Amino acid sequence: MLKKVLIANRGEVAVRIIRTCRELGIRTVAIYSEVDRASLHVRYADEAYPVGPAPARDSYLNMERILDAAKRAGADAVHPGYGFLAENPEFAQACLDAGLVFVGPSPRTLRLAGNKILARRAMREAGLPVIHGSEQETGDGDLAQAAQSVGYPLMIKAAAGGGGKGIRLVTSPEEFPQALALARREAKAAFGDDSVFLERVLEGVRHIEFQILADQHGNIIHLGEREGSVQRHHQKILEEAPSRALNAELRQRMGQTAIAAARAADYTNAGTVEFLLDEQQNFYFLEINPRLQVEHPTTEMVTGVDIVKEQLRVAAGRRLRYTQDDIHLRGWAIECRILAENPFDGFRPSVGKITYMREPSGPGIRVETGIHEGLEITPYYDSLIAKVIAWGETRGEALVRMRRALDEYRIMGIRTNIPLHQEILDDPRFQGGYVDTAFLDQAAYEERAASSDDVRAAAVLAALLHHRAKTLRASRPPQGTQPIKSGDSNWKVFGRWMAVGR
Question: Out of 17-21, 242-246, 439-443, which region has the weakest mean confidence (pLDDT)?
Fold first, then answer.
């Protein structure tokens, strides 16, 4: 087994990996930028090394500094987590060249999965159903010509894309030139590659992904499906496992197709094969995600398999401990991604110091986080700060537990998207499982900025409440307490007021 692992990441995923390493008796090495010195993953690890200033390109994307930290720490493996360098074949190769085990697929597989054009072509050749689109990078004129055969509406997608970046929806030929220029520009900025391809838009589809595990001895299994149809700008914000849209027969067919895709990509370690499922239960290959996924805890909750533990075992050359017959889905799990952003102000990122935090707990609740009280949330990295996972014997029980958990969660000092999750859970269509990838758009969740009338009404209400509090303090202090001074905080005022039922 591995003896010391460097986690080339930060935040909640780094903490998640450290916890499993501790259970296995593996020592851990954290890396951190200048602004992450006080982060939770730095506190949890056995050792920690600085890798540069705040911008990711100078720290968490700096391969040379990360490998130097691994060498100084005497690590024998590197776990990339997700994001940053997790899907970078050059980084995987650099780890191998440095004599380090890379906890993930081979550089060859990363190159195939990382280029959506190559992946589509490989999957089509392997006999998988692929969405109609273009399968080679060409000039702008040829792409405009290809768009006519693909048909509108269509998506322009970055070939090296991921995370919803480098994607543009085009509904007519007139929109195509500008959308193509924007997609190329965004792809270049995000991935250093402006190659794009076209893909036909399917209406009313669900986003279904199958978790796969593959060892270095040719054994591949799937751990069932997750549904991530609740998306904003092509980024999943809520996932559940299993999917209400699948029955046993369809689950078996899609699972076997996912295994066939993994074999076609010569896949090892953990990853997902993603599909789009239409209303007629036809499914189409979308992409392979060659890494640990943000939503992996939902699968762990319903299967009992520690995916990170299996990643480490496979990376060490060991065989999978499970066969397909060992995998059974029990209950239901839902994950809400907690983001540092304001859903009532156009989803603007929120930064600042966390002044108070209380995590939910209780039966069936799991929280994965990289934050703590006093931590400064900065604008340099992804807005994901925590994940709440709820498990129940049924989907209904999981929903009720998640609603309770979100009501309990308190994060003060910054704004989060917890209110958005609460609205989604209260939506009758979501409760019934009637969702697709356009769910948030259809529900008019996008326009959330307060109107000027709302702002004026809130200001008037705040003034009235302030006046009422002052009146109560001056005339009737709560029974059994000392009089409240005018300089006391609102917490003390309203806390005492509610304590005596006034």
Answer: 439-443
The token duo for 105 is 């697929």
Rounded Cα distance between 273 and 286, Å, is: 8
List, edge to edge, every strand of the sheet that includes 167-170: 167-170, 154-158, 196-200
Q: Please report the pLDDT score of residue 450 as a whole number.
A: 53
Number of Cβ within a 10 Å radius of residue 431 = 13
Q: The pTM is what?
A: 0.85
| Residue 244, φ and ψ in degrees, nearest 5 | -70, -15
Q: Which residues contact 245 (CB under 8 A, 6 or more apart)?
A: 206, 208, 227, 277, 281, 433
Handedness of CA 210, 213, 219, 221 (dihedral sign): negative
The values of phi and psi at residue 28, to 5°, are: -125, 150
Cβ 290 vs Cβ 91: under 8 Å: no
Sketch out the chain's domains with CATH numbers.
4-103 (3.40.50.20), 132-200 (3.30.1490.20), 206-442 (3.30.470.20), 453-499 (no CATH)
Radius of gyration of the chain (CA): 25
Which residues are annotated as catalytic?
291
Tokens of 393: 């014997």
The Cα 310–Cα 300 span in angstroms is: 11
Measured at the CA of 239, the angle between CA 434 and CA 81, to 5 degrees, comes to 160
Spatial CB neighbours of 475, under 8 Å, sequence gap ≥ 6: none
Sign of CA dihedral 419, 390, 229, 386: positive
CA separation, residue 411 to residues 20, 151, 297, 385, 407 (Å): 26, 46, 22, 11, 11
Residue that has been written with the tokens 């493996």 in this structure: 77
Other CB atoms within a 10 A radius of the CB of residue 294 amount to 25
Please spell the DSSP secondary structure of 288-314, one letter per residue: EE-S--TTHHHHHHHH---HHHHHHHH
451-482 pLDDT, tens digit each: 567 667 777 877 787 777 777 766 655 444 44
Contacts of 384 (CB under 8 A, 6+ apart): 11, 12, 294, 337, 338, 339
